[in-house]
């Protein structure tokens, strides 16, 4: 568990980039009820805000639900996030993608700091250890994990992609 004050400090201090690469991200909305307003303000100030979430309808999600066997299902937790993020849909700088692979770790980036949770077998992400990293050098652990999050983002599918008109 990470104190709310650390999350708030990291989000508030980020100027360029906030990345939430976690399969459900649901705890954010429970722990931080004003997060939508805060992220909207950050995006309006020019900070890029990206989310990578699982697809609640995917086979990967179904298998993860079987493994966790938790009363609050993975797909429900993802839908909590999608519902909260929907309020940010028209905010420039906020983008959301479905990740088609289960994340072996969650990566939350705030400019040159990040929180990383390596997921432990059969446990929900919030039951995994959480590491707080700062970038100190080129191509170190921070850069490698930032690259991992970027690859998840790059390979993801836009949640808000609008279907093309039939006559386009």
Succession of helices and strands: HEHHEHHEEEEHE
Query: In terms of per-residue confidence, which ranges show pLDDT below 50 for 5 or more consecutive residues?
Result: 164-168
Query: What form results from the Cα inertia axes?
Result: globular
Number of helices: 6
Strand content: 15-25%
DSSP strand tally: 7
Q: What is the C-alpha radius of gyration, as a whole number of Å?
A: 16 Å
- How is the largest sheet built, in terms of strand order? 6-5-4-1-2-3-7
* Mean of residue pLDDT values: 89
What class, by secondary structure content?
alpha/beta
Assign a percent range to the helix content.
25-40%
Query: Main beta sheet, described?
Result: 7 strands, mixed
Distance between the termini: 49 Å
What attributes does this structure have?
38% helix, single chain, globular, seven-stranded mixed sheet, 168 residues
Describe this structure in words.
- With 168 residues, this protein is an alpha/beta fold.
- Helix content is 38%, strand content 21%.
- It has six helices and seven strands, in the order αβααβααββββαβ.
- A hairpin with a 2-residue loop joins strand 4 and strand 5.
- The longest helix has 15 residues, at 141-155.
- The radius of gyration is 16 Å and the shape is globular.
- The model is unreliable at 164-168 (pLDDT under 50).
Short overview:
Helix content is 38%, strand content 21%. With 168 residues, the chain is an alpha/beta fold. A seven-stranded mixed beta sheet has the order 6-5-4-1-2-3-7, with helices on both faces.
SSE layout and pairing:
Elements: H1 4-13, E1 17-21, H2 26-31, H3 35-44, E2 48-54, H4 59-68, H5 74-86, E3 94-99, E4 105-110, E5 113-118, E6 131-134, H6 141-155, E7 157-158
Parallel strand pairs: 1-2, 2-3
Antiparallel strand pairs: 1-4, 3-7, 4-5, 5-6
